[in-house]
Amino acid sequence: MSRRVCGTAIACAYVLSPLVGMAQAPITARDVVQRALQSYAAVDVSQEQVGAAAAAIRLARTSYLPRLDTIGQINQATRNNVFGLLLPQGVLPSISGPVLGTNTTETVWGAAIGVLVSWEPFDFGLRSANVAAAAASRTRAEAALKRTQFDVAAQTLDAVLTLAAARATVTAAQAGVDRGEVLVQRVEALVNAELRPGAEASRARAEAAAARTQLIQAQQAVAIAQATMTQFVGGNAPDVTVRIPTALPTAQPAPLVTANVPVAREQQSVVEQTAAELRALGRTYFPRVALQGAAYARGADGETVQNYAAGLTVTFPLFDAASIHARQAERAATLRAEEARARQIATDLRARWSAAVAALDGARRIAANTPIELDAARAAVDQARARYQAGLGPLVDLADAQRLLTSAEIDTALAQLNVWRRLLAVAAASGDLEPFIATFDSSS
Question: Which one, 18, 281, 347, 403, has the greatest CB density within 10 A?
């Protein structure tokens, strides 16, 4: 095989490197993201939290319903009674009836049954404020779910590109090993023919061993990347293959809108929930008005009486003002802290997006330069090999040229992948992965 054919084979291996050693046909980036969203447990946790928040709204709405309490009781007790009063307490059972002036151990059977209906016709906005606070909690849970899904998708795509980069490095490192072994064979043949000193054979074997070490390190990186993929897509990460596009998009990133980034939306929902809780707390220092109706029957010693009642009850926590004001101050301080955190998140997102755009620009320039590096490295190997075979150059020049070629092949293999990783970083910083996924899949 000629050197030109070898170079063509290496270039093809670079283009197809993400597919080497794979048992399954490539899938789309959208497919692997969907697989991760179905497999990653953190998404399930967030989904259940949304369900819990929705249940909390239903619970808050039940406060609009009337309250119906019933009781039924039968007992046997002594009937001694005295004049006087007991302050409200929950230890001594109450007794009714006239004072008999006796103190006896005789008992009497008694029974009672009754029902009490209570309903608040108006509450000065307390119940609606509690429902709004519960709704804000659900909005926050939904925002947390979307942020979790976004993070899982971004991390999965990054793991896909990391795995592809590791596999491309293995391909380039394997080419370096192959060249090193060929060099060892040629140098040993020359040494055995006493055309070259024995030290050159040792040098050639050392270069081949160094190339094999580089290959082992690349294979180790593949194993680590596969383990990371397993974290997101389950136990079949080695079978996940995404075709890496060879065409790179040249469009500039769209301007950043921080309010659209999932982490910013989640923080805004935290601010809104805290504000809703503060409003609900402000509605607690109002009278509680209840329409009540009761009916009951009691019996003792064969006698039974029935009663019913209807009325309006107003309660007001007069001395709760200090504690409510303190709780309002605490909620207000929490609200200001969450608003400050939202501003800081927006600032961090702008800095992160700017850094990602700058890194993308550098990656694109590197990707444009690496083919020049690769062509020059190939030419240097051809020239060094020719000089060595003609006896005009030392082995060290050829060994250095081959190491430079391996490095250039790795740089070229990683350059395009690095552009995609930087594009992913820009998409993650902008809070929208859909354009990246669509472009990535359409370019494959």
Answer: 18
Q: Are 226 and 238 in contact (CB under 8 A)?
A: yes
For 397, the token pair is: 């020049």
Average pLDDT on 186-192 reads 80
pLDDT at 190: 79
SS3 label, residue 118: strand
**78-97 tens-digit pLDDT:** 888 888 888 888 888 888 87
Instruction: Enter the tokens of residue 343.
Output: 């501003």
**How many domains does the chain divide into?**
2
Q: What is the mean pLDDT of the chain?
A: 84
Residues 6+ apart with CB under 8 A from 230: 237
- For residue 194, the number of C-alpha atoms closer than 13 Å in the C-beta half-sphere is 0
The verdict on 134 and 148 lying in the same domain is yes
Q: Which neighbouring-strand residues pair with 305?
A: 298
> Of 50, 206, 38, nearest to 141 (Cα)?
50
Q: What is the DSSP string of 91-114?
A: SSPP--S---S-----EEEEEEEE
The token pair that represents 76 in the structure block: 């046997």
Sheet holding 303-315, edge to edge: 67-78, 107-119, 288-300, 303-315
Full domain range(s) for residue 252: 3-61+126-278+323-443
Of 389, 380, 436, nearest to 407 by C-alpha is 380
Residue 55: the pLDDT is 86
283 inside domain:
no
Per-residue pLDDT, averaged over 398-423, amounts to: 88
Q: HSE of 430 in the Cβ direction (CA atoms, 13 Å)?
A: 18
Mapped onto helix, strand or coil, the DSSP state of residue 120 is: coil
pLDDT in tens, 198-245: 787 888 888 888 888 988 988 998 888 888 888 888 765 556 677 777
Lowest mean pLDDT among 91-100, 104-113, 211-220, 397-406: 91-100
Whether residue 227 is found in the same domain as residue 173: yes
Contacts for 246 with CB less than 8 Å, ≥ 6 apart: 15, 416, 443
